[in-house]
Amino acid sequence: MTAAFPPHADTGLLAPGRELSGAASETGDPAYLRALLDAEAALTRAQAALGLAPAAAAAAVTGAAVPDGFDVRGLAARAAQGGNPVIPLVADLTGAVGEEYGPYVHRGATSQDIMDTATMLVAVRALEPVLADLGRTERALAGLAAEHRDTVMPGRTLTQHAVPTTFGLKAAGWRSLVLDARDRVTRVRESLPAQLGGAAGTLAAFGAYGAGDAEALTRAYARETGLAAPVTPWHTLRTPIADLAGCLAFTAGALGKLAVDVLTLSRTEIGEVSEGTGGGSSAMPHKANPVGATLLVAAARRAPQLAATLYGSLVAEDERPAGAWHAEWEPLRDLLRLVGGAAGHAAGLAEGLRVHPAAMRRNLDATRGLIVAERLSAALSPVLGRARAKELLTELARRAHTEDRPLRELLARQQELRGVDLDDMSDPARCTGFAGILTDRALERR
What we know:
mainly alpha; elongated; 59% helix; two-stranded antiparallel sheet
């Protein structure tokens, strides 16, 4: 049996990353319809609170503004005529409220007031599960960082072994990025404002209906929506959208850093970490693919382009733009869905990540001890002089490669190093600098 879907239905077939978060359900058409209705009902309640509308009107509009009573597909079809879904929604809501109180629906507002306010409500609601998943990710990474504070592994620069580091410091670094994302999302979410300006951002119609204090009306509306109160209408001052774009793109990138490291470290020939539950292959039964990390990297690659469209909409002419405002809706929803799914995958990845210290130790020896050459150069300079220490290590590093012999063995054969304790200075576990202290410092952040 196959389910019947309209030809244009988006069931998530090509978006396997988005369903792991509540952000998906908070950004669909039903969620937007709910937010639009909430914005309309809040407007009537705000006017009633200031004596500009009867309390019974506020109750009637709020009672009628229930998503189940509206045909979202019908609204979508009719939205093309006016360029946005608010126009047909107002007509349907007015009819649902009835003749007595219908005139109080949308009174004084313009379509962008309702659409922008609804978009802010959608964002606030979608970011709640994102923050919860970032919290899960942070806690899991903190546990890994503490557990592996002193687990030595190769540090890599430009894809090659550099000097030893610890997995604890790496995990603590991932966690720091997640906390940076959390802080940015939290600040932006708390600052998202309601929108109220009327036809051209002057609130003129509200004055005609008896409003004597624009600030009081705006604050009442913000209070009814649960959003921040804007200083002025922001119809063409798109700071809230740009802030959303920035924090979401940053979050995708921060989680992408975790993921791309996991992809590298879980390569078959490296094997230092692995996902708790790998994905299968349609052709190769032996594979356990790092699917979670793969989907995170895909999200991180898509997010900047979506954010770029939103930044481009800052260029909004006049008191209401033709196209700039409209261009925001779909990329912003895509970005919320993308980051919501990424946050869910990141939490699962961090909570299930398997760390393989034995593989890390094996890989430390892959360059025959050359990974501690920096430490040896510093330690031998007081004995041999800086120039001679560098000259000797350069020569022995070449021989270690060509003769396939450990650097420690070649050093031990040098007459000028007799009596020097080479064991301590050539042990990678003793060459991690202040990695442990840096890890502890990073974990102090809450």
